[in-house]
Each structure stands twice: as C-alpha cells, then as structure tokens.
C-alpha cells in the first residue's frame, strides 16, 4: 500500500497495513547505518524542525540523526531559548516555523493532543514525539520493530508491559500497535498505576509479576515516573523494586530466551536490576539503534504523504 497521511500522530488511528508499511520501510533503511557513508538523498532539500517542550535525549537525538541520514537540514528548537518564554503559543510557533518553509515538525509536548492540534493548523507534516500521557508512536514502533527482528513475527506472541502504566504514553502506543498486529498483551503494575477501563483496549491485567513473566516472550519495562506523583500515591521506590522489579531471580523463572526491553531512561535498582539491564536477554541498546531506522522511515513516509496531498491540491 502507499502512505497517504501528512502526519504521524499516534497508532490508535493507524491500520494494521499502515503499521506494517512503516516497519517494512524501516527494515529497508536499517542497512544505511552499516555503510561507510551513512546517508541517502531521500529528503535532500527538506527541513526538519525538532520542537521539544519536554526533556529528551534518545528521541530528539534519534530524530536528528535520522533526518541527517536522509540528507535533510535539521533545526532544533528548545522553549528555553525561544519565543515560548515570551508567551508565544504552540500554534503560533508552528505557523512561524511553517512560514520559514520547514517541511516537517517533530513535536514533543506535555499536553495530550498537542501534536494533533498543531497538525490541524498547519499544512506541513507533524510527527508526534510524545504528547502528555497520550501516545509516543515512534517509540512503540521501534519496540515492535525490535520484537519482530528478534522473534520473526508479532502475531501470537505474548508481551508483558510492567511499570507505571497510568502515566505512560509508551504503554498506550505499544498496546495499540501490538494488538493490531495480533500480539497478546499483559499489563502488570500496582493497582493504583492501572488506568480505569484500560482493559477495553484488549489487554490482560495482573499485579503478580511472576505470573506476568512466566508465559511472556518479551517484557517491556517502563520507567517509574515519580516526578508525576503529586498526591504521594506511588509505592516507595524500594518497595516497588521488591514487588515488581525485574531481577535475575525472576528472569530465571521465565522463558530462557525472553526478550527484555526498556524505552529509557532506566532507573537501575528501581525498575530493573543492573545485571539484567546489561545481560544477554536485554535488547535495550538495540532499541536505540533501531530507533534511527524507524524514524528515518517515518520522516520519509510523512514527507511522501505530504507531497501526495500537495499534488492532489495542485
């Protein structure tokens, strides 16, 4: 199928075929990173703007590297050094970036729905790099890409997501993507960190980590977002590690080849034991590597979708 969307805002709205197209495109781009000259001219003459209203290391740098490997020009904008400090709105910032003839805005924002709102006001492409507690589509796509690479398929596999589900945009995007591709998803967390009604997304729920691991082909460990605990409702860090932390002892009871994932940043000794994070089951650094190819695919596809819509209009 051909990609026809101007933007990538989330996985909830994508079809299985669209997700598979992104994954197959990423597979073709991964080879670029193995070359001596790690560049292709796919986005030569295009400008990509990274507009990040929240802190980021992996995602922002990954998008920057991906854009440069596609031969695009890249501009990074931080609110601390922009007119946002003077009261400029997100939409006005976006309109000014569009007026400067940028082609793609990659936006991260603390408010759910920010990327979608921006896309409605702009003719250029918008890629969601994380919006509030809503979605983080490219992180989920690179997680799924890594799983498919390691296991060979997504349909029928058992994936357990452990940790702060309530505040995790990564979890929501993973659930949408994995279930659409036929995976079985189990969520494991303290009850206060399981959102009400999330079982309607087609997942299983448990607060027993040992049960959650025993049948899992892969476990995706989420960061505990203690900075969001305004009501002091979270468990203490050490108590959480004792009840839900991924340790060597727990992993030894799981399938021998279970895949261990983490979107980062890792809180060692809280969500995961260091020996496990750096152990043979871990694909955490492979996720980072695959993030470049996946984001190359997304930037390339939204550019094609934008050009197609532009041709339709003109």
Describe what this molecule looks like in 3D.
The chain folds into two domains: 16-136 and 288-306, Aspartate/ornithine carbamoyltransferase (Rossmann fold); 137-287, Rossmann fold, CATH 3.40.50.1370. The chain is α/β, with parallel strands linked by helices and 314 residues long. It contains eleven helices and nine strands. It has a five-stranded parallel β-sheet with strand order 7-6-5-8-9. It has a four-stranded parallel β-sheet with strand order 2-1-3-4, sandwiched between helices. It has helices at residues 16-30, 58-69, 90-99, 114-121, 137-151, 169-180, 209-214, 237-244, 248-252, 274-277, 284-313, and strands at 47-52, 73-77, 104-109, 125-131, 158-162, 184-188, 204-206, 218-221, 259-261.
Topology, pairings included?
Elements: H1 16-30, E1 47-52, H2 58-69, E2 73-77, H3 90-99, E3 104-109, H4 114-121, E4 125-131, H5 137-151, E5 158-162, H6 169-180, E6 184-188, E7 204-206, H7 209-214, E8 218-221, H8 237-244, H9 248-252, E9 259-261, H10 274-277, H11 284-313
Parallel strand pairs: 1-2, 1-3, 3-4, 5-6, 5-8, 6-7, 8-9
Helix pairs in contact: 1-5, 1-11, 2-11, 3-4, 5-6, 5-11
* Secondary structure category: alpha/beta
The largest β sheet comes out as:
5 strands, parallel
Number of strands: 9
Please list the strands of the largest sheet in the order they lie side by side. Answer: 7-6-5-8-9
CATH topology of the largest domain: Rossmann fold
Question: From the coordinates shown, what is the CATH architecture of the largest domain?
Answer: 3-Layer(aba) Sandwich
Task: Name the shape in a single word.
Answer: globular
Low-confidence stretches: 309-314
Quickly name the level 1 CATH class of the largest domain: Alpha Beta
The percent range for helix content is 25-40%
Q: Number of helix segments? A: 11
What's the name of the CATH homologous superfamily of the largest domain?
Aspartate/ornithine carbamoyltransferase
Mean pLDDT: 92
Rounded Rg: 19 Å
* SSE ordering: HEHEHEHEHEHEEHEHHEHH
Number of domain modules: 2
Beta-strand percentage?
5-15%
């Amino acid at each position: 199928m051909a990609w026809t969307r101007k933007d990538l805002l989330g996985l909830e709205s994508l079809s299985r075929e669209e997700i598979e197209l992104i994954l197959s495109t990423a597979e073709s781009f991964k080879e670029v990173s193995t070359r001596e000259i790690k560049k292709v001219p796919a986005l030569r003459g295009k400008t990509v703007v990274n507009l990040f209203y929240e802190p980021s290391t992996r995602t922002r740098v990954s998008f920057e590297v991906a854009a440069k490997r596609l031969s695009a020009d890249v501009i990074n904008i931080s609110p601390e050094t922009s007119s946002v400090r003077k009261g400029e709105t997100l939409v006005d910032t976006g309109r000014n970036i569009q007026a400067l003839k940028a082609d793609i805005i990659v936006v991260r924002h603390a408010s759910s729905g920010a990327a979608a709102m921006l896309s409605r006001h702009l003719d250029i492409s918008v890629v969601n790099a994380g919006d509030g507690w809503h979605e983080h589509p490219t992180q989920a796509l690179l997680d799924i890409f890594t799983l498919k690479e390691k296991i060979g398929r997504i349909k029928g596999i058992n994936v357990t997501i452990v940790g702060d589900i309530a505040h995790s945009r990564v979890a929501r995007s993973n659930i949408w993507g994995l279930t659409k591709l036929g995976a079985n998803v189990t969520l494991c967390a303290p009850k206060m960190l399981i959102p009400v009604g999330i079982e309607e997304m087609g997942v299983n729920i448990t607060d027993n980590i040992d049960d959650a691991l025993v049948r899992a082909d892969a476990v995706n460990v989420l960061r505990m977002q203690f900075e969001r605990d305004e009501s002091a409702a979270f468990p203490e860090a050490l108590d959480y590690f004792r009840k839900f932390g991924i340790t060597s002892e727990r992993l030894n009871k799981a399938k021998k080849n279970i895949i261990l994932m983490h979107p980062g940043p890792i809180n060692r000794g809280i969500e995961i034991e260091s020996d496990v994070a750096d152990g043979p089951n871990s694909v955490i650094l492979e996720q980072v590597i695959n993030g470049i190819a996946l984001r190359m695919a997304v930037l390339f596809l939204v550019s094609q979708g934008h050009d197609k819509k532009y041709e339709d209009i003109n």
